[in-house]
DNA sequence: GTCAAATATAACTCACCGGCTATATGGCGC
DNA sequence: GCGCCATATAGCCGGTGAGTTATATTTGAC
């Protein structure tokens, strides 16, 4: 699954947001996510296949960590659009300068 | 459908990319997209519902234009991750400086 | 070795998505 | 009005996604 598709699911974005705070075990994620443990494991599998997270087994616990590299592609795709919407903001700003309310 | 989900479909990203070059009629999009006209219309409907494009009827032609505002949300979500992956690059860079091959 | 804890996988269901063809809708030319 | 052109919608189908419960797997504790 592409990084784009992986991000389409809100729970998966939640998981990534949680992992931004550092490594988390599956149990810790389950505790914060209002879906079943197998559901979390399934999402983690998708994220792992997309290269967005990595696992580090530690005893019987598996700690997941963020691996944000694939997001760079999304960011790169977004790049030209950033110009587009800031251009729009510029237009608005110029308009306001020339026609103050 | 959320902006994230809208972006999950490659054809829809293609459509947005095409619209970056300016307004396009449905026919022009169909000509470049290797899917049927109804398929394109369906994707345009999704993009419209997500607020990513706007329509301007002009005679019997409907011209679609980019409306990138919802992408700002995606960009904002991505923001903290940008830090995360540039941090990783920094780590790599420092490593290379301290241990040149 | 046995049991319990942590996690993954299997198997199932339901809903939705993306493609198609066929058809409806609305504007234009005559 | 009639027919054509551009586009949208309806309706169908096959695939897949996200959730569940039940079960398998691995590891640690004893």
Please, could you describe this protein's structure?
The structure is a homodimer of 101-residue chains. Chain A is an alpha+beta fold. Helix content of chain A is 65%, strand content 14%. Chain A is built from 5 helices and 3 strands; from the N terminus they run ααβααββα. Chain A has helices at 3-7, 10-19, 26-33, 37-49, 69-98; strands at 24-25, 53-58, 61-66. Chain A has a 3-stranded antiparallel sheet. The model of chain A has no long low-confidence stretch (mean pLDDT 90). The structure holds a DNA duplex (30 and 30 nucleotides).
- Averaged pLDDT of chain A: 90
Content of β-strand of chain A: 5-15%
* C-alpha termini separation of chain A: 49 Å
pLDDT < 50 stretches of chain A? none
Number of helices of chain A: 5
- The class by helix and strand makeup of chain A works out as alpha+beta
What characteristic shape of chain A results from the CA principal axes?
elongated
Largest interface: pair, residues per side: A-B, 24 and 24 residues
What is the ordering of alpha helices and beta strands of chain A?
HHEHHEEH
Name the strands of the widest sheet of chain A in spatial order: 1-3-2
Biggest sheet overview of chain A? 3 strands, antiparallel
Rg of chain A, Å, rounded: 19 Å
Organism (chains A, B): Paraconexibacter antarcticus
Keywords (chains A, B): DNA-binding, Transcription, Transcription regulation
Protein name (chains A, B): Metalloregulator ArsR/SmtB family transcription factor
């Amino acid at each position: 699954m592409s990084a784009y598709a992986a991000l389409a699911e809100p729970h998966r974005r939640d998981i990534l947001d949680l992992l931004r705070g550092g490594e988390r075990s599956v149990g810790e994620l389950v505790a914060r996510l209002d879906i079943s443990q197998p559901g979390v494991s399934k999402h983690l599998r998708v994220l792992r296949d997309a290269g967005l997270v990595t696992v580090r087994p530690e005893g019987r616990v598996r700690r997941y960590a963020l691996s944000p590299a694939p997001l760079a592609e999304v960011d790169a795709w977004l790049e030209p659009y950033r110009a587009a919407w800031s251009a729009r903001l510029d237009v608005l700003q110029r308009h306001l300068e020339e026609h103050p309310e």
